[in-house]
Batch of 4 targets.
Target 1
Amino acid sequence: MAAIETNRAAAAALKAEVRRTKAKLLGEVPKLIKLAQKKVKGLSSEELEARKELVAVLPERIQSIPDGSSSSSSSDKITSSSSNKKIKFESSVNFDFDYFENSEESSQFQQEYEMRRLKQDQGLDEISQGLDILKNLAKDMDEEMDRQIPLLDEIDIKADKASSNLRKNNARLKETITKVRHNMYLILRVFIRLIE
């Protein structure tokens, strides 16, 4: 009895996965329609039309995949395209309740899948923690930058003032040196005249 319930639960989970996959596939159909309409170098117009037809019937074929919901019936069959006989879809697989029955191999696979998923979740948790640490570090750096920007602005203003004062002092010093040279020259001339 428990095995039957486990099988039913597994079958329900697989059917739900089929429904999710169908929804994903149906979400990708608009992209395929756009791609099918693009002209490709070396592709004949007949092949282009065949591509368009295949993509046009794709949503109907995806919907015809049995997924255990009441809207899809198990008697739906997937057939090959009428325009392109080379492409065939397998319709002989019968997806009834027995198809999803649990076996030793499937149980082992499911356990391995769960272990890998848990390991992946642990890895993602570690990555999440690392990202949280990086986020906090970035926040701290941002706050520190906000704190230091006014200090840097003040340093910049003071450096400009010091540079301006240095230029003024250099100009005064140059003027003083010019005066001293001129006075030295005069003193030397006077001294030379006195010696003569």
Note: Confidence is low (pLDDT under 50) at residues 72-83.
Target 2
Amino acid sequence: MPRPPKSSQSNTCNFLLAFLALWSCVSLVVIIVWATWPHMRNHNQSLCEAAKQTAIEKLEGVRVIWNKDQHTLTEQLKGSRETQASLESELESVMDRVGEANVALMGSLQEKEIMKVNITTFKIVLETHVALQRNLSSVQALQQAHSDWLQANWTWSLHHWDSCNALVSAAKSHQVAAESQNKACTSAHAHLTKRL
């Protein structure tokens, strides 16, 4: 059964107290009027006693009801205080968890910012490496072209060297032939000179 709110309990209590006070005042007025009215005194003595008895019985009934309501309200107030204490404890626990979650969230946000900075740094480093790789590729292409030129030049130099060696060999052969021919000519000249 749900407990009524605190203001509702207070209103019920105030209503019962006001009703008891009003009932008491009305009963006193009726009793005083009947007691002081002389021509009605004898006639209404029995009625007054009956009304008084009825009023006392009603008052006792109201007191019993009031005591019962007071006890019920006290129990409800005790229960509501226990519920309030339990809710306050639970609220404190929830607030502690919220605080821990906030701390964890702040840590996550800081890690996220650090990761953003790291990603930006990695991007810059990656772009630098890409540019460096392009430069190295260009340098490698230039070196390859230079190497090809040197290889071609070396091959030409070898052919030129072989050609020069062949020319030297041919020149030596011509020299030997010329020397032989010179010797032959000298012999022939000497032989002709003897004949003359």
Note: Residues 45-195 form the longest helix (151 residues).
Target 3
Amino acid sequence: MPTAAQPAIRTRITSLFGCKYPLILPGMSWISDATLVSAVSNAGGVGILATGPLSPDETRAAIRNIRSKIGNETPFGIGTTLLMPGATENAKVAIEEKVPIINISLGKGDWIAERVHNEYGGKILATVTNAKHAKSAIESGADALMLTGHEAAAHGGDVTSLVLIPSISQRFPDIPLVAAGGFANGQTLAAAITLGADAVAMGSRFAVTQESSLAQSIKEIVSNPDLFGGSTESDTIYGKNFDGIPARVLKSDESARLNRKPASLPLVIYRAFNAAQKMNIPLYKVIPGLITQWDKMYMVAQFGAATESLMKATVDGNFDEGVSSENC
């Protein structure tokens, strides 16, 4: 693990991860890349690389790129959504590269924790949305939990951060907590710590920074608080029809249309296969799951089918035809 920096504010997370500030960049697909991860970690936070869109070779290259920018003593991490195709391979690459922090979600990561702890003393940050998942993550070897509240952009739980943080902190007092969902400045950091958290993850806030690769037109919409034409606290939609997992996205005609009802099964499978090809995921890794684990893979297929709409907004800046999960 990297040598601990002298923290500006000392919490269990700054001590555990060796960072200066209790600020985390979560892994956001097409946004939390090597450039933004390096910028956040170099500034004293912890940047987490999004590996969802990456092949194992791309993940390895990104990890080495980050290290070339921050050195070997500055903490950073990678995120792996275990339910998704390619996640296991990317996690293995991260372990081979001895990434200091691995953020796992939507899956059982005990095998990752065992290897990370035993092989090089790394840390596991598990993303959870309720007490049941928190208990499972702790039993699987998590060193810290990221609590994703209902306010979060993209995939958040049913429980608000105001309720979730104190509930988990009281139920599991010995594990460090990162609060995610509604946190974007010093006021909200102070609120999170008061509620029982040890750090905050700020996705939308870091997504609109100069170093972020989010399309400039989307940055301007997200960061504009104007009541007429901007992005306010009311300009989001929460539901599971868009990509199969409950998620919060920016309100637009397109996101409203896609959230009205789930896509038809043939369309979901067709678009999921197209997304797999664009992300260089072999179809042989997708088809068996559709047959043997239909419920889980249908959700994965829905998520894959949403990729095109997410990329239109996030990468291309086409807000009218795409969907943005970076909120105000």
Note: The two ends are 34 Å apart (CA to CA).
Target 4
Amino acid sequence: MSSAFLSAVESRRTIYALGNTLSIPESKVLDIVNTAVKHSPTSFNSQSSRVLVLFGEEHVKLWGFAKAALKAILPAEAYPASEQRLSGFEAGAGTVILFEDKAVVKGLQDAMPMYAEKFPQWAGHATGILAYVLWTALEAEGLGANLQHYNPLIDADVVKTWGVPESWEITGQLVFGDIKAPAGDKTFKPLEERVKVAGAKSA
């Protein structure tokens, strides 16, 4: 049973060369998102993770906001390289914006003050798990994806344009679409440097 899951884990890569068509219906993408949000674990089952799914022109609009925000703060000579990178994300079919609800986190801090300083960290874990589940599931359907972090530059535009609650704090943007070019080769450090085992009766 685990082999199919681990095969999907091995196949998940960061794909930057994306196109704006989908090999699966948008409804299937939303099924994946809903399943991932519902079943991805959170600390104390707080269910603090939130998402906004953007397709088509709404997705393009998001990356237009990112371009404008960067153009306003970068030196003129530095902007073209960033614009080219952002155009690559804009070329995709959609974006899942990831959030953690600060109101939920604050409620946990108030209810369990002994863990108060840990809850933001644990919310970060929840976002990472959700992003990974989404990313792996989308790539298992033949799509490519990459994870970006243009928050807080885009935060105000996202709140204003799509009416998300201000308590939703953006944690990342998962861009997806059809694969125009595969990921390059990936190197790995020796597992002996990364994995320690104690108490196993067999190896």
Note: The first helix runs from residue 2 to 11.
